[in-house]
Amino acid sequence: MAAEMARTDMMLLLVLALAAFGATNAKTVISLGSQTWTVENGNRSISASTTLPAYPLEILREQGIIEDPLYRFGELATRWVALDTWSFSLSFDGSSLAMQQLRSQKQVLLKLGGVDTFASVMLNGKEILEANNFHRQWSVPVKQLLVDGDNTLVITIKPAAAESERLQAEHPYSIPALRQMGAVGAYTFVRKPASDLGWDWGPAYAASGIHGGIELLGFSNAVLGGSFMSQAKRGDTFEVTITSELLVPPGGDSGQLTVSIPALNLQDKQAVDLDTAKTASFVSTFKVNASDVELWWPLGYGSPSLYNVSIKYTPDSPACGAAGKVQQQQQQQPGRRGVSRPERAQQQQVAATSADGAFRILSGVDLPGALTFKKMNTDSLAACQKWCQETAACQFYTFGPGPDAFCWLKRAPKLAGAIFGVRLDNGKYDLTEGVTLNGFNLGRAKNTSSVQACQAHCSSTENCKMFVLNAGKCQLKEPWAGAVTRLLGVKLSTAAASAAAAPRRRNNQRQQQQQQAAGIAPAAVPSLDALSVAADASRSSNSAAETLGTSNTPGAYSMSVTSPTGYAMGDASVTPGAYAMIVTDSTPGAYALSAGVITPGGYAMGITSVTPGGYTVGDTAAAMEAEAKDLDEFMNEVNEIINSDMPMTEEPADITGDAEDVVAACAAAASSQLSHRIGFRTVELVRLPIAEAVKDLFPAGHKGWDVESSFGVNKTNWDGSWAMTRTGRWDHFPKSSDNSNIEGESFYFKVNGVPIYMKGANLVPLHILPTNVSKAAIHELMQYALQSNMNMIRIWGGGLYPVDDLFKFTDENGLLVWMETMFACAPYPRDPDFLQNVATEVTQQVHRASWHPSVGVWAGNNEIEGSLSWYSESRTNKQLFAGDYIALFVDTIRSIIKKDQPSMAFVDSSPSNGAIVDDERQFVKRWGEDWDPRYGDVHHYAYDADCEDYSTYPKAKFISEFGSQSYPTFATYAEYTAPSDWQVDNYMTGFRNRRFANGLEVLETQFKRHFRLPATWSAPNDPEEAYKLFRSFFYITHMQQARCYEAAINYWRRLRSQPAGLTMGVLYWQLNDIAAFASWSGYDYEGRWKPLAYAVKRMYANLQVQAIQDGPQTKIFLVNDHTTAVNTSVEVSVLSLSDSADAAECAVQQQQPAALFTVPVAPLFAEMVWTMPTEDLLATRKGCTKTTCYISVTASGKASPSAAEETSVAQLFLVPLKDINLPDPELQLSEFRPLRPSQNSAEPADSDSADSPAAVTFTLKSNRPAVLTNLNTKIKGRFSDDAFTALHPCQPRSITFYPHASVEQLTAAQLKADLAAESLFDHQYGMAGQ
């Protein structure tokens, strides 16, 4: 038994030694981003602390140096930030244990996940990288440059706008760039999101910063550096090709590469011999029978099934440091007895309350945002804590052990009305009034004035330790985690201290009683100082610089000038903002802290930033060891045990099997693994002659709109189409049976062999800074797309490549992605350096996206083919710019995509006429007008045309952009502007519209076609009237936009089954906003739904009814996106604007529809199912004319017997709304009641949390027909439906309001008090005919 125990103890020590040295010696990763960096501007007049990723613009906002850049004219007020040079610097200790392990590796790489954009990277005074591409990652060997002691890494970022203009000026010939209103720089010369420099829907911040992670990667065995996949279906078999890429250390390596798809029991093993220091690639191929897998389908057509993929590399000779030595010792001395030693538990960060309950103690963190007012040198933690306890002003202390031990007393900045909360062990909070804490925010502030809600928010948020509640905002706080050698003490109130100490006292009493009962003498409790291990922590500190009289106070800054008065690049005498923010001391390094009295924390071997607590033998519930030793001391003891030749006291134990286990553990630690998911599917972009496409798209026996209607008064045939002839002239073609005389080719997508009509929108960047976009914000926006019945999202080429969180969502929810490389709206250079930079960028992004089945097509750019006709330079030298275009988008980008994703659909530009030849051997482009509806996809903008007249829209095959403008919802606009801005003729109204210099005039020209407008929008001497006019202006922009899109989308939806159209997709411009600006979006910057969003939701329904006026006829169309026929009931009614809510009158209306019939609608098809002369239709209702009545059509049907019934409603006014005198509808809101999200599965809540506030259901009704209804509330959220063309008094609507996740609590009474309903009656001026 004793020998067995000795053997067990020995094995524990051996495994611990491997954990400490072996695993980390196989591969070492040190995150630099989580450490504390200093960020400074060009003349060092501003200095602040930060972790990475970070942007100076946001750091300055958080520190209060600048106001919110998005508020009012913040774009201009903060422009100097974009024009300055910014440096991020970090000092770290090369002598720490982790750094020693890292430097012992054969190869060490500095990896930068994303730099924005022109950056010089210096390590210990030597430039190691000149980065110049936002869209790619960087990796640089640095092993030879790392030293003992201080290492300094500096990343200096130059202003992108100035650099782009310099590069443009230096180019050997002039390359034009689109210059939007308010834009800066020449975006085509900088590999950065083009919209960062300004676009016609957003501001120009041109921010510099670091948007990706930064780490040091050391390895002595090869490690997996990346992978990508492609798939193709041949017959009934999927062929999946997975390419694994390995980073190989100097001297090479060998091992086994295993790629597997576990759910399918598929595995490929390869013995790989790596004799090069370059990246090595290995291909694994799997053949999968299609009948053996569940296919990935887009929304509405099946489940988006996914399969896990595992890629693992295991080296033949793991570089586990002592591993070989361990194995040798065990084999040579099998009987050597081990010395018993406790097993240390897994590391966890110390966050506990002191024994006396007076302080909340956090390890490895600090609060530079608090103000240091006293300092002393002491190595006594007890003395530091006592000093703070006895100093009334002290609210925090920072204790740093080691040879230069110190104690700083700190206080929080005062702020009247603020509440500062600290989270305790028991989950409760200690509250202090009248103080705040600068910086170190965790996420975005939440809107609330409730202390309880703020506490709950912190409790449910990972890493939240504190919060500040002020002015209706709850800001969570996470202390700076870079202070690995420090303890932070937070003084608690007397009541909190007593409450916190009570459980500890009770626990100690129970332990003493148990020990006495067992006859065990109570152990001596070590003092607080005994637990403060003064390890040899290497400290590096910045010199105590003082600028403008700044004291040496972490987190403090001096402000000698109250406002920026000027700026000169590189002029040290000018201080933009006149802020000096100097952090005078930082102490990165490492030490081992034993804090057993504070908490039984864990221990992580080989991790320098840990703060281990006590350790136990086997059972973590056992008694803690009274005196812990630091990591170096413990490992020295382990090595002595391993190397000793101790005499035997028992019979030798057989530990051969254990030695094998240790070696296996070493190999496992040295292995490298990647995990992905794949979805089996095919996505084809079908381009066929029209006659062939008709045969593919139309159900058997259907010829499109030729189908005769037997339900209407008249029978009618489709009378032909306008199309473009081979000579380039528009002409009218009579309909023929074979469609052979229609010029052009199809453009549609087939997924798993099914031709699917694509319904979606274009995504633009969600925020001016990529680091401010959360996973929750991405999911929220994509959830809106699902709720609006979209099945495709286009990633516009003027922004940035999506993060993995977006791809993950689209994969899991069946949203197809039209992906573009990031080029837009102007010619780009094609010099060798530029092309090589782009090649690396595109390769990285294509490889990353390859794992996502939702990515269905790649496009080379946005509108660049068309832009060649926009600029005089390209118009006068077509050959030169066509050559540049081919070199970049065909020879470079297309070649990369087709090489690594051979089955991926690719279009060189959007829009484009496509190619005459596009195969594996060659690509011959079809040059010409890229707006030609005969070929490819089309972007359509015609601001001079009547947007409500469908005949003005082209019969394009696929519309990847179109739209018209509106402003944000007023609630959102009001958050970023002041009441003084709320006038139509105010400068702010034009400042936030970047599309037109005469924006109001362009919008008003469209409005006048359909609405009765006021004689003037100006009321300078009547603020109340000016505000009313402003609200009317916003309302009309929203309703006009919705009606424009309705005319266009409905037209293109029914054109899917008209041979001269064959329209098979609409992606409207644009899904979202980057700021509270006028734009084409359906969802504004704060996520509120505009009327357009509700209209799109109805238009994109899988079963949709349409009512149109075509000359003298009223026609009814049904669109069926289902793969099965739908037997549909249709009711056509003529309703009067004088109708009331009288019950008897409503009963008559329900019994006397103008038409009532049932019709089958073919699958994946649009059919005209009914037609009647409009005059005859009006005659069915006595007294009705085009100005007094309107048409209402309701269609209902099921896609299958078990499916839910779908209902679609269409309403048609027969004259422009300006020609109708509308009655006061007397809108009413009633019957408010709460509704939990689980009570309505058809409308999921926008938050996944079960604690999200209840939705509220209410009824909207009227006493007369209400035209173009709109619901308004300041409460953030969305309605289940809104923006009705007409709300009839006999048909009240039950509506649900779903509050945004940021709304902590919502009652029916709160919504009722804030909700208002309006209609066109409230915004129609004058009388018809005047």
TrEMBL record:
InterPro entries named in the record: Apple, Beta-gal/glucu_dom_sf, Beta-mannosidase-like_N2, Beta-mannosidase_GH2, Beta-mannosidase_Ig, Galactose-bd-like_sf, GH, Ig-like_fold
Gene Ontology molecular function: beta-mannosidase activity
Annotated Low complexity bias: 509-520
Residue stretches making up the Apple domain: 354-436
EC id: 3.2.1.25
A GO BP entry: glycoprotein catabolic process
Enzyme class: hydrolase
Protein name: beta-mannosidase
